[in-house]
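It is worth pausing here to work through a concrete case rather than discussing structure prediction in the abstract. The textbook approach is simple: state the sequence, then state the predicted structure, then interpret. We follow exactly that order.
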Amino acid sequence: MLIKDLRVKNFKCFRDFEIKGLKRINLLGGDNNTGKTALLEAIYLHKLIKPSKFLLDEIARMRIGRVRLNREDMGIAFYIENLTNYSVPNNEISLSLNIENKGKRELNLEFLQDFSNVNGDQTDLIETDLNEVSGFDAVKLEYKLNGKSIIDDVFPIDKYVRRTFSSAKMESIFNKVELKIVSSRSTYRISDSDIAVLYSEYTRKDTTKNGIINILQAVFSDIRSCDIQLWPSKDAYLSIEKNDGGSHHIGSYGEGLRKCFEYILNAATYNDSLYLIDEFDNGIYYSRLKVFWETLIKVASETDVQVFATTHSRECIEAAYLASVESGDKNLAYFDMQRREGKIEAIPYDEEELGVALERGWGVR
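Step two, the predicted structure:
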């Protein structure tokens, strides 16, 4: 899957933001508070079009690892306020993606203060004081495919709500348009059991397990094999055997190896997907970055995965550039996220332009 360009309106720090020239690997750099993580969240919203998934809870979950907040602490109103652009007088969000061979997808969200006047699916509301808490009753969701509206629905914001729409028909529509999107958060440490589940998902594709071992050995040459084991509590974990014969659970290794497993397994497992990585280089030693990028670029190309990654590290950008040049595919784009006169802009660099910027010592980071 390849997004060719995207546009974001009235979402968080974005008023009317557009980015073009996207490639297989897309690095987002720039100063703090320039929308790097917010852009990943905007893309991720396209995964959350099912009313059965509580939209604001999902956004809250994406933020928990980064800002240590949760819905109970701050309330629904906080997340609505942080979804919409503070400088925009209305409550409408628009997110569009132009995807190669899949057409243009447009997601429109409108926060409604009076649900009773909206024509939509009949919904049973359990008693709630939500309107008094947040000022909004519901979210109106419209999803367009190549300009044609295929979903036009209203669902209450409060989590204590039971949906009553015709599930079979709606599920068929959602399954048709839902995008496969995977994300990794910098400050969220993936659990041992989650890594075991991810490894299990991969081995459904490659029962020999040789493929992933060969991939991982490109980064960590002393790995011989991996296998899923169970603790006495029956919780699963991934056991790693090294060339010296030693075998240990993955939790005993450093963050760099865990990141490698998470990133590579996600890219290798979920074909034809979008992979969003916040602060790519967090926990990875700089000397391993180039071989790490070489491996990820190769895997992403083989599995038709498009990567969006944020970073503040010049070493990470340079490593990605060198790995891309050696691959010969010209599949890397770098975007310098900047705030100009209160507006967020993405300054694009293709592979050649990025090489010049790095060589001349320009402020690329």
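Step three, interpretation. The chain has twelve helices and 17 strands. The CA atoms of residues 240 and 246 lie 8 Å apart.
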